[in-house]
Design brief:
The complex is a heterodimer. Chain A has strands spanning 3-7, 10-14, 19-26, 30-38, 44-49, 56-58, 61-66, 71-76, 85-93, 100-102, 106-111. By secondary structure, chain A is mainly β. In chain A, a hairpin with a 4-residue loop joins strand 7 (61-66) and strand 8. The mean pLDDT of chain A is 92. Helices cover 0% and strands 48% of the residues of chain B. Chain B is built from no helices and eleven strands. Chain B starts with a strand and ends with a strand. The chains are: A mainly beta, B mainly beta.
Chain lengths: 112, 115
């Protein structure tokens, strides 16, 4: 059974801090790893990572994948209160179904 | 481009009652997914459609849950009869294709409370 584990489960920081969120996975037929941000509504897409060692960057957010060690990290620099959300990691498997398996998420709270 | 639409946004029912949720994906998206997200957990895939055919329903509790996408566009998910543990947010998502390079776009979800 495919498994995605995120850590920490929750994190409280102050504005301006840098945070690192972790995602490890055990998946048969791995294809891609995706990061989503979920506020009090539907998840919104952040990144899709397919190749090892290539950093993807969007503003203050960046992410990298290590396919040998089976993990990914999501970094957020100079955090703002608007970054407060649940960050979900999901792994896309190949095969006939090509489904996403989600982790339980990391609840990030950024205090002013 | 309009997003994924879902209705209703909230629903409260008593256990053993029936309920139905509706989803209209982004226009042209061939693949549609229904997820169940229990509080404090990540979304769990219930069923995946490719056009009007079921690709994967291995995690759908078929004794009480059913879903259809008759014309390959919008979809309904039904629960009958509901149990307390069905309380969750039901998310619908769509993607242009099952190809791995496409991300899934999520709707706002339907929050179901079973009392």
């Amino acid at each position: 059974e495919d498994k995605v584990v995120q850590s920490p489960l929750s994190l409280v920081v102050h504005e301006g801090d840098t945070v690192t969120l972790n995602c490890s996975y055990e998946v048969t037929n791995f294809r891609s790893l995706l990061w989503y941000k979920q506020e009090k509504k539907a998840p919104t897409f952040l990144f899709m990572l397919t190749s090892s060692g290539i950093e993807k960057k969007s503003g203050r957010l960046s992410s990298i994948l290590d396919k040998k060690e089976l993990f990914s990290i999501l970094n957020i620099t100079a955090t703002q209160t608007g970054d407060s959300a649940v960050y979900l990691c999901a792994v896309l498997s190949s095969g006939s179904a090509r489904q996403l398996t989600f982790g339980s998420g990391t609840q990030l709270t950024v205090l002013p | 481009e309009a997003g994924v639409a879902q209705s209703p946004r909230y629903k409260i029912i008593e256990k053993r009652q029936s309920v139905a949720f509706w989803c209209n994906p982004i226009s042209g998206h061939a693949t549609l997914y229904w997820y169940q997200q229990i509080l404090g957990q990540g979304p769990k895939l219930l069923i995946q459609f490719q056009n009007n055919g079921v690709v994967d329903d291995s995690q759908l509790p078929k004794d009480r849950f059913s879903a259809e996408r008759l014309k390959g566009v919008d979809s309904t998910l039904k629960i009958q009869p509901a149990k307390l543990e069905d309380s969750a947010v039901y998310l619908c998502a769509s993607s242009p294709s099952r190809q791995i390079t496409y991300e899934q776009y999520f709707g706002p979800g339907t929050r179901l409370t079973v009392t």
